[in-house]
Amino acid sequence: MDIQVFQSEALAAQAAATLFAAQIISKPDSVLGLATGGTPLPCYGKLIEWHRMGGLDFAHAHSFNLDEYCGIAPDHPQSYHFYMEKHFFSQVNLPKANRHVPKGDLPREQSDAWQAECRAYDRAIAEAGGIDLQLLGIGGNGHIGFNEPAEAFTGDTHIVALASGTIEDNSRYFDSVEQVPTHAITLGIRSIFAARHIVLLATGEGKAQILQRLVQSEVDPHLPASILQIHPRVTVLADRAAARLLEG
Ligand code: GLP
Q: How far apart are CA 194 and CA 231, in angstroms?
């Protein structure tokens, strides 16, 4: 893992945006793996700014988001569909037909429909040529996407029961903890690992401990992000606050 530390959150986010811009410029039909949460917001802000200035054209790009809550409609303000529309898609020229976010609003009881959605999502990524550049944040427990700590690393896109810590962490975005969905649909670890280049963005004091664990841990499914240690091309971009507990 190449770990780069920046003076501020804005500079770390700008470095992530630069990797995405370079990817698009060198390969206009790139397949981008996108993430949600608070961390990537300034990165999306920079990409939008550069797009508006005229230098960044998403007209031929494809995107696949990591995850979505189950049982939540795309127009729910806390859905990742809504987030992506608000913070990125509505402000760049990435064609609608090329944007993908897993469906979260399938009928709860129809497990066949969920399975079909998971398989269709994996198929669509494969048909697009696989993910060129994957953006990741990291959960407080080391989850990436919504791959929670487990006995084994997960495979393809699947439905996951959210860990109680994740529900608590993410309740800051909802009116109450009871409103946080208990399940999510997420790219699996195998699908994330298949990306050609992965950039993990970690900013703020709240990520210091998990970043330290990530760097010091053995590769262990109880800390899902630890798999990134053995990926051939991972760039970790952190601000000083998140890198506070790293040596050197
Ligand atoms: C959610 C998302 C993750 C994200 C994590 C951290 O659980 N599924 O993809 O990395 O939150 O979010 P934040 O950046 O808001 O701390």
A: 9
